[in-house]
């Protein structure tokens, strides 16, 4: 019981430290966490509205791109934050009371709460301010957010090990994932792709998450390709690998 209480206090302290470091030193603080995705969505919506008569789904460009941009950004921010958890808390990890798991959990929880809040503000702000004719399916919406959190945690855990052991991994990962924004369905639907591209991109778990979230906002959209079991299985395998490797190599990473 005492150990659990001490772990909880440590995680909370790490979260407060990151909040003050990341948001407390810049003008606007948390406001930028909301303005950044809103700006990206508006730029996409305005740009494509000049090129297309109607969005690929529904009648509102802002909602269509918001339902792709929000879960993608949620996954990306959590993955990046967890991947750098050991480096971010390296000075504090020299104390016996602070463990690598505390550092990972603190960054995950803080960024998850921030991402969920931002997603809620953006998506429901669009619903309130625009004529979207959306009919919400909260089961699909909450499941999509949960899968994005799980996937971000799992990829972040594995990358945390690889970044600590391989000096060039950050550059390699950046190059490999640079097309991910386009290859995850933020700008288009899975059904609009040729069959050859569908056969390849189906294995991208983000495509399933984005499709599931859009199904939660568009009642006429049947995302039949979505497999929640595949996303969960992919995430759990990756999470298991990252956890085992971190437990084995965290000391070596901290002493590099």
From TrEMBL:
Keyword Glycosyltransferase: no
InterPro entries documented for this protein: ABC2_TM (IPR013525), ABC2_TM_bact-type (IPR047817), ABC_2_transport (IPR000412)
One annotated Gene Ontology cellular component of this protein: ATP-binding cassette (ABC) transporter complex
Membrane-traversing stretches: 29-52, 104-129, 141-166, 172-190, 227-246
Sorted UniProt keywords: Capsule biogenesis/degradation, Cell membrane, Membrane, Polysaccharide transport, Sugar transport, Transmembrane, Transmembrane helix, Transport
Compartment(s) where it occurs, according to its Swiss-Prot or TrEMBL record: Cell inner membrane; Cell membrane
Xref: Pfam families: ABC2_membrane
Topological category with respect to the lipid bilayer: Multi-pass membrane protein
GO biological process: lipopolysaccharide transport; polysaccharide transport
Domain ABC transmembrane type-2: 28-249
GO terms for MF: ABC-type transporter activity
Family stated for the protein in its record: Belongs to the ABC-2 integral membrane protein family.
The protein's name in its UniProt record: Transport permease protein
Species annotation: Mesobaculum littorinae
């Amino acid at each position: 019981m005492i150990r659990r209480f001490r772990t909880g206090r440590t995680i909370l302290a790490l979260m407060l430290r990151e909040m003050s470091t990341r948001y407390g030193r810049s003008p606007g603080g948390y406001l930028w966490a909301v303005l950044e995705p809103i700006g990206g969505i508006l730029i996409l919506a305005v740009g494509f509205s000049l090129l297309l008569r109607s969005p690929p789904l529904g009648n509102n460009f802002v909602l269509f791109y918001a339902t792709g941009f929000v879960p993608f950004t949620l996954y990306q921010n959590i993955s990046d934050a967890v991947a750098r958890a050991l480096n971010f808390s390296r000075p504090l990890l020299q104390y016996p009371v602070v463990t690598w798991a505390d550092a990972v959990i603190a960054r995950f929880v803080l960024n998850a709460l921030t991402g969920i809040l931002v997603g809620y503000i953006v998506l429901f702000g669009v619903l309130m301010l625009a004529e979207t004719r959306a009919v919400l399916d909260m089961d699909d919406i909450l499941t999509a957010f949960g899968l994005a959190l799980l996937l971000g945690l799992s990829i972040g855990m594995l990358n945390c090990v690889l970044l600590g052991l391989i000096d060039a991994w950050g550059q390699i990962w950046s190059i490999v994932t640079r097309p991910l924004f386009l290859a995850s369905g933020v700008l288009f639907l899975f059904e609009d792709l040729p069959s050859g591209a569908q056969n390849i991109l189906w294995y991208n778990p983000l495509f399933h998450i984005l499709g599931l979230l859009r199904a939660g906002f568009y009642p006429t959209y049947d995302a039949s390709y979505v497999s929640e079991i595949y996303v969960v299985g992919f995430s759990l395998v990756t999470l298991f690998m990252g956890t085992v490797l971190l437990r084995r190599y965290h000391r070596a990473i901290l002493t590099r």
